[in-house]
Amino acid sequence: MEVYSRATMSNSIENNQWQPDSWRTCQATQQPLYTNEAHLQSAIEQLSSLPPLVTSWEVESLKNQLAAAQRGEAFLLQGGDCAESFDECTSDNVVQKLKILLQMSLVLATGFKKPVIRVGRIAGQYAKPRSADEETRDGVSLPSYRGDLINRMPFTVDDRIPDPELMLRGYERAALTLNFVRSLIDGGFADLHHPENWDLDFVGESPMSAEYNEIVKTVSDSLEFFESIAGDVVRTRRVEFYTSHEGLHLPYEQAQTRFLSHRERWYNLTTHYPWIGMRTADISGAHVEYFKGISNPMGIKISATVSDEHLQELIQKLNPNNEPGRLTFITRFGASNIEDHLPRVIEAAKKTGSPVLWVCDPMHGNTETTTDGYKTRRFDNIITELQSAFRIHTESGSHLGGVHLELTGENVTECIGGARGLNESDLAKAYKSQVDPRLNYEQAMEVAMRIAGQFNG
Ligand code: PEP
Ligand code: CO
User: Fold this and answer.
1) Pairing outcome for strands 327-331 and 298-302
2) How many CB atoms lie within 10 A of CB 186?
């Protein structure tokens, strides 16, 4: 195709040979085995010709804001479901998710006194890494469920065979989600700015209610102040909102990767801000090869197993020109391991000279299973990891520039603790996640208040 051949002529020297499907020459982990190659290619071709979901202007604008966060001038709030499902692409779910992220961002902005960049794990978070390729039940082994983009959850042969059509269904769901998000945002979503319209009953249940009420009052006062000097500008001001998902399923990411001749660069236009998961960050693997060639800002999940050398190689390969805003490290060590690893990775990154945005994911290192078999996370461990991250960055002459949370705007019971004191026996009441446990509306708001409280004194 014309756009592709042009790229080979004008892309940068190290990316000279790079193409959206170059990853196929590398070891690709966490990919399903499609049984019909022609069907796969046809789905990729259809996806390649459909309009992109996001634009490079939005992507570059986000990169600039992330560069500001790297300098300490903004803070990133990234959150959403562990995995989205096609069935849950409903009006209510989108509204609730946008609402919680917007309200949290106002609490955080009040605490930090700096802009908060809002990013959803939304409109494409349809593929999940799995620890085993197959699942066995009663002596029958079938491919593991890898997310709605790839196969279906029911344990039957037909459902579990990877189906390339699902990439098209995923693209459509993402487009529907994004269309609604954009309309809500353009329409102002204005009343949600005001804490009078928030569901804050939980505040009264907390031993920290005085502090939380103080934060809510500060949010109200600041909004009133701005409204009084700016008419109703604050109420109607357009809110910015960006999308992200794990760039896991490479055929999908590849299909929407476009060379933009006006920028002379490649962009993944399924999302503004893809990330590389912990299990696919091998330096010579297919995911790093794919991410190397795109110009989007990108996250990389960093766990305790990462060596200093690996981290430095990732920086060199993914940000060879030290571009501001390009790289985000999302650390997920766990409350009891963060002390052992965060200081060393901060030092390792410093030695490369590349700017990095440091974000704390206090979810994935704090997952445990209850005796009843529920995967859960304790609110206290989440807060402890976050507080340690803030402190360790400061002690290391760095700063924490954002948080990455698994949350929902719904009233689920998947994580333990918080103002309402949810305990193990409450989990059965409304446990909906098929994958990782999420903070519910109240727990997520409380996390935002705890973070804001640290800076509001
Ligand atoms: C996730 O963010 O849902 C995820 C799988 O992350 P990690 O790679 O950190 O386990
Ligand atoms: Co998860």
Assistant:
1) parallel
2) 10
The response to whether residue 409 sits with its C-beta less than 6 Å from ligand 1 reads no
The residues, ordered by sequence, that sit 6+ positions from 381 with a Cβ below 8 Å of its Cβ are 334, 335, 362, 366
Question: Is the CB–ligand 1 distance for residue 82 below 6 Å?
Answer: yes
Looking at residue 233, its pLDDT comes to 52
How far, in Å, is the centroid of ligand 1 from the Cα of 278?
6
pLDDT at residue 2 tops 60: no
Q: How do residues 4-56 score in pLDDT, each as one tens digit?
A: 233 333 344 445 689 999 999 999 999 999 999 999 999 999 999 999 999 99
For residue 187, what pLDDT is reported? 78
**Chain-centre distance for alpha carbon 314:** 19
225-231 contact pairs (CB < 8 A, 24+):
none
So what's the pLDDT on residue 224? 83
The domain defined by 40-187+240-453 folds into TIM Barrel (3.20.20)
The rounded distance, in Å, linking the Cα atoms of 132 and 377 is: 22
- Name the residue of 273, 278, 302, 330 whose CB sits within 8 Å of the most ligand 1 atoms, as the mutation to test its pocket: 278
328 burial (CB, 10 Å; 0-12 / 13-18 / 19+) is buried
DSSP-assigned letters across all residues of 334-369 = -TTTHHHHHHHHHHHHHTTT---EEEE--STTSEEE
Residue 83 in contact with ligand 1 by CB distance below 6 A? no
Q: Where are the domains of the chain?
A: 40-187+240-453
The residue ranges of DSSP E strands in 15-139, in sequence order, are 75-80, 116-121, 134-137
Does 194 have pLDDT greater than 90?
A: no
Cα of 220 to ligand 2 centre, how many Å? 33
Q: How far apart are the first and last CA of the chain?
A: 58
How high is the pLDDT of residue 15? 52
By alpha-carbon position, which residue is closest to atom 6 of ligand 1? 277
